Amino acid sequence: MTRDDRGTLAELATFHGIQTSYTDVDGVDQKADPGVLLALLRSLGVPIERTEDASVLLQNQRAGALRRRLELVLVHRIGRRGLITANLPLDTEPDSIWLALELEDGTTFRHALTAVMTSSTTGGGVADEGSIRVQFDLDRVAEKAVPAGYHRLTLEGAGAPESALVVAAPDCPQGPRKWGAFLPLHALRTERDSGVGTYSDLARLSEWVTSVGGGLVGTLPLYPAFLDPPADPSPYLPVSRLAYNELFIDPTVLPECAASPAARASWDPDGGPAGRGSASPVDYEELARRRRLELEPLAGAVCSGDFPDRRRSLEEFAAAHPELVAYARFRAGRESTLHLGEPDPDTVAYHLYTQWVACEQLAAVARHGGRYADFPVGSHPEGFDPVWSPESFVPGVQGGSPPDRFFAGGQSWGFRPLHPERMREDGYRFFSSALRRAFRHADCLRIDHVMGLQRMYMIPEGHDATGGAYVSYRAEELHALVALEAFRAGAVVNGEDLGTVPKGVRERMARDGMLRTWVFQFESTPAEPLPEPASNTLASVGTHDLPRFGAFLWGEDIDERERTGGLSPAQAAAERTVRTRWRDRLFDALGLAAESDAEQVTAAALRGCLRHMARSDAQIVLVDLEEMWDERRAQNHPGTESNENWRHRARRTFEDFSSDRALGETLSELTAERAS
Predict the structure, then answer these.
(1) What is the CA radius of gyration of the chain?
(2) Residue 200 in 3-state DSSP?
(3) Which of 177, 195, 259, 484 is least buried, going by the fewest C-beta atoms within 10 A?
(4) Number of helices (H), then strands (E), in the chain
(5) In DSSP terms, which residues pair with 445 in a beta bridge?
(6) What is the pLDDT of residue 123?
(7) Is the distance from CB of 435 to CB of 377 less than 8 angstroms?
(8) How far is CA 312 from CA 303, 308, 320, in A?
């Protein structure tokens, strides 16, 4: 491979959005290997066999881009001037070109191009040797301000395909200063639960949090998982980002349950594999089996017509959500097929029923208080989403992150990333549908790895996580989709912007009114133990991927990393020295005595940190409820496949902690601080 060949390969990669280098967290420039560039180009659909092919391909594809009349996707923000650019052949007669705009409600406008062209570009400027560039005003085409929504724009007479037009609000909705509580739903215990929390339990938790002044209740993502043995319960690798998790359904509150003695007779009176209200780790496989035994008779009763009103509602749900009908067929197809290759109709009906019921019960949660929802960055590679919209995903690669201080070998997250160009061909059908599902029952939505709206680290098959490269997305388009769906839902958006954050991400977040993520563990230092969160943030002590407050305070996470080989004894000793200095400075700032009882001083330090954040300008302060009783076990250990991940349950039941006067007073203090 010659130097010229490598240079042309890099140009071709750049043309297709592959970044040939990136700056790591230490400010060091990291260059992508040519073999990685070749593999990613092939996965993106570029027909390149050898590096030497890059020159001809680049020439042809640049020429093809210049012949494009309109972009496949056009974006307009309400309140800004809607200038659209088109490329036309030099010999075009402008009077022969017409613009047709079809709004999503079916209203259509049609005008001659010359009637809507802006005066400053009449006649156009030369875009290349064979075309001219013209601009026209979108509001002139619509004869008014174009409303928010998904519309279609066609340049008739120019040989151009129809373009998707996304019209979004100028920014995401804003809300009042508030605090919220966080507790994973699988971890939420009640005295009578069956081994896992339910949507009904979540509604009760939301009602209680509202009663002590909280404005939101947050959980981990509530999407379906593959729970057949061996279960893969990660909420960040769901079967689908379009569907609902049936495990959290509460059968006891369903109308058909009360009238179905046969269904109730099949249930286990002990409630679950470990008994009622057990604190044992979640046994997903057994619980999924039992939940199905409970729900199948109810699904059969509704689908057979025993409950006409309920069946009618189910049919209306199916008509409104064809993607979930397809999802039900997918799940049924994985279980068994008839001799004609079609999934069993009863199994399809069961899975559709559980989607409907889960959606109903999650909607009921919203009536009891605000909900903080979480939108994962990817879907399971063997799940429904790549089947429903295969063109939206890049084959032969995984999303992940490059090496950093925490993961020297980088991370591979197991999902197939979205295709930066092909998902545009149908106007982002999958991504917009997934966003709509995420916002459906949310007052605030966390966008996991918000940098993924701008670029994604992609790792080709056959390479480890050190052998990847970043691939760019059309950030303006993806941000517009988020802003549009947030506007329609009236929901605040919080972007998770931790880790390696490229230039432009936080600038776009600020422009769009997205809240940044502020984490005390990352921001607090010996020099500044009580830093001030900014106003445009959602602030928390930690995250589900970080050590618990008490464990971090006393350096137990350092012990764990040394024990598992993540730190050498010398590195661990150095970190303990820094941590001790930080802890002493934090205690001084909070007016606490380091020699006090460890349990009491831990609780006082946490309370002081939370009150400090509550007094700040942060838009939202999120409180992990398990921290309030000094839980030390983490919900997740990133980079591991531990059987403990996503399984542990809260040490205290809802009945216990919701009646704890001291806890209620502490949370009420946050309400008072937020109001001051």
Answers:
(1) 27
(2) helix
(3) 259
(4) 23, 22
(5) 373, 493
(6) 41
(7) no
(8) 9, 6, 12
pLDDT of residue 347: 96
Neighbours of 597 (CB within 10 A): 10
pLDDT 10s digits, 399-448: 999 988 778 788 899 999 999 999 999 999 999 999 999 999 999 999 99
Q: What is Dmax (Cα atoms) for the chain? A: 85
Peptide bond into 460 cis (omega under 30): no
Q: How far apart are CA 411 and CA 636, in angstroms?
A: 15
Q: Which residue has the tokens 């994973």?
A: 184
The distance from CA 208 to its chain's CA centroid, rounded to whole angstroms, is 27
637 pLDDT band, cuts 50/70/90, is confident
334-361: average pLDDT? 88
Sequence letter at residue 604: A
> Cα separation of 202 and 220, whole Å?
12
| C-alpha to C-alpha distances, 88 to 32, 64, 103, 173, 311, nearest whole angstrom | 37, 13, 24, 38, 54
Non-local (6+) Cβ contacts of 610 within 8 A are 541, 621, 623, 666, 670
CA distance 298 to 280: 28
Q: How far apart are CA 318 and CA 529, in angstroms?
A: 53
How would you class 65 by CB atoms within 10 Å of its CB: exposed for 0-12, middle for 13-18, buried for 19 or more?
exposed
8 A C-beta contact, residue 186 and residue 196:
yes
Q: Which helix (H) or strand (E) holds 184?
A: none
As a 3-state breakdown, the chain gives helix, strand, coil percent values, each rounded to 5, of 40, 15, 40
* Number of Cβ atoms within 10 Å of the Cβ of 61: 14
Give the pLDDT band of residue 664 (cuts 50, 70, 90): very high
Rounded Cα distance between 570 and 252, Å, is: 56
**SS3 call for 587:** helix
For residues 423 and 386, is the Cβ–Cβ distance under 8 A?
Answer: no
Query: Of the candidates 664, 544, 674, 669, which has an alpha carbon nearest to the alpha carbon of residue 620?
Result: 674
